Amino acid sequence: MQVEFPEKLDFLFEPARYKVAYGGRGGAKSWGFGRALLLLGAQRPLRILCAREFQNSIAESAHALLAQQVDLLGLSDYFDTQEKRILGTNGTEFIFKGLRHNVASVKSTEGVDICWVEEARTVSKASWDVLVPTIRKPGSEIWISFNTELAEDETYKRFVRTPPTGARVVKIGWEDNPWFPDVLRQEALDLKARDPIAYETVWGGNCKQVLDGAIYANEILAASGASPSRFGKVPFDPSKPVHTFWDLGRADKTAIWFAQVVGFEFRLIAYYENRGHALQHYIDYLRTVAEERQYVYGEHWLPHDARNELLASKRTIEQQMWDAGHRVRIVPKLTVAAGIDAARLLFARCWFDEDLCADGLQALRNYRYDVDPATQQFSKNPLHDWASHGADAFRYFAVAIAEPQAPPKPLDGPNDRYARRRRSDAKPSGSAWAA
User: Fold this and answer.
1) Domain Phage terminase large subunit N-terminal spans what residues (predicted)?
2) Which residue has the higher pLDDT, 2 or 345?
3) Which CATH architecture has domain 217-426?
């Protein structure tokens, strides 16, 4: 069979544990990877996992691309394209899964020969930490394709900046694409003439320092450019309490920042997010991480919706946290814009643990303004996407500690759990925790 194929992707037919193709728009990475997998799967039975960070339905997967390639390559006699799978007559199987917050399903996927992670730029550290050891069959391979954006993206750092031993890493652009249409070729050349810097990032595949429209662009640049950088290894101080700051969700994500106040520094020492779980999952996580890292908790700051009554429970999230033995505070209610301003002011005093806060930092770097569909300009409203939950939790952190208060006076009255809660509710906006 004679198949047109990008020369730079020839390495896909050679054995390697990791095969990585990255670059700018129009490089035919997805087409090339899809064709290679179908050709290999037609030759011998393979179990191929096609993964993305976010996949809420089969329509968001590579299923349609592969089905199209089956037709273009004339392989309809070799593959049966079903609604959620593609099966080869020789036993080859293509399966499709999302990675983020889908740990149990990913871990249960046994016997994978090749895992293709498509659009891998946004894959989180937590997802990679689960996926890589799951693909453990002898001779198994992990294929990675993505368009570059930020040099601090987890995928870029892990597989391009410091690739694993034996990895095959190739940068590919539109010039290497045998199917590149003339209309897009002219668009690329026009942008190169009009805005060479934009061309280098959009079509050239070179990394940006910050995303266009990034809400915390200046703050992130200042933190990374500081000497020393405020993104690095942040020490945990066992003499100080650990406070947490939450953005709540169930079908949506719940995000939690863990912070300490040490002198005039705000130390962001850990971050956790998940979805699809009831509150007990997060209470159990607090206990587990406290035991592992010797945390002693101070206050847990929740947004106002923590006081909403739940259909499945007679108790609010706030009440459940109190009943679990945690001291709870509700974040003062401000507009989103005012909260963002508070976060910007606070950023210069924040130090972030680059490893334990990796997914939270990824959210902050990707938190950006939405685009007005009428003007195609950035609006005043943040885009609500996967990055907004971690960013919202960080905003609540900033609002909660914007006005530190003096230590409370000695108690003169009841000191049971509910009395403490009444006193907490009566306090003015701002934190009462001591540094």
Assistant:
1) 17-205
2) 345
3) 2-Layer Sandwich (3.30)
Cα gap 420→411, rounded to integer Å = 10
- Where do the CATH 3.40.50.300 domains begin and end in the chain? 7-202
Is pLDDT above 50 for 430? no
Closest Cα to residue 94, out of 112, 77, 106?
112
Pairing of β 168-171 and β 369-371? unpaired
- Which helix (DSSP H) or strand (DSSP E) does residue 317 occupy? helix 317-323
- Measure the CA–CA gap between 64 and 68, rounded to whole angstroms: 6
- Per-residue tokens: 56: 């809420």
**pTM greater than the 0.85 cutoff:** no
Sign of CA dihedral 407, 413, 416, 419: negative
User: 429 with 332: CB under 8 angstroms?
Assistant: yes
Q: How are strands ordered across the β-sheet holding 47-52?
A: 79-81, 86-88, 93-98, 47-52, 114-117, 141-147, 18-23, 168-171
Please name the residues in contact with 82: beta carbons below 8 A apart, sequence gap of 6 or more.
none
Distance (Å, whole) CA 193 – CA 199: 9
Per 3-state DSSP, the chain is made up of helix, strand and coil in percentages (nearest 5) of 35, 20, 40
Look at residue 86 and give its three-state secondary structure. Answer: strand
Q: Tokens standing for 430?
A: 């701002």
pLDDT digits (tens, 9 = 90+) for 68-125: 999 999 999 999 999 899 999 999 999 999 998 787 788 888 899 999 999 999 999 9
Q: Which CATH class is domain 7-202?
A: alpha beta
Angle separating helix axes 125-134 and 358-366, nearest 10 degrees: 130
End-to-end CA distance of the chain: 70
Tokens, residue 159: 């597989």
87-92: long-range contacts, CB 8 A cutoff, minimum separation 24: 88/41, 88/42, 88/45, 88/46, 90/42, 90/44, 90/45, 91/45, 92/41, 92/42, 92/44, 92/45, 92/46, 92/47, 92/48
The token pair that represents 153 in the structure block: 């993206």
Q: Where in the chain do CATH 3.30.420.280 domains reside?
A: 217-426
Largest CA distance in the chain: 87
- Burial environment of residue 41 by CB neighbours within 10 A (0 to 12, 13 to 18, 19 or more): buried
167-197: b (≥16 Cβ within 10 Å) or e: bbbbbbbbebbeebeeeeeebbeebeeeeee
Residue 412: is it exposed, middle or buried by C-beta count within 10 angstroms (0-12/13-18/19+)? exposed
Q: Which DSSP state fits 124?
A: -
**Exposed, middle or buried: residue 418 (CB in 10 Å: 0-12, 13-18, 19+)?**
exposed
Q: CA angle at residue 21 from 162 to 273, to 5 degrees?
A: 65
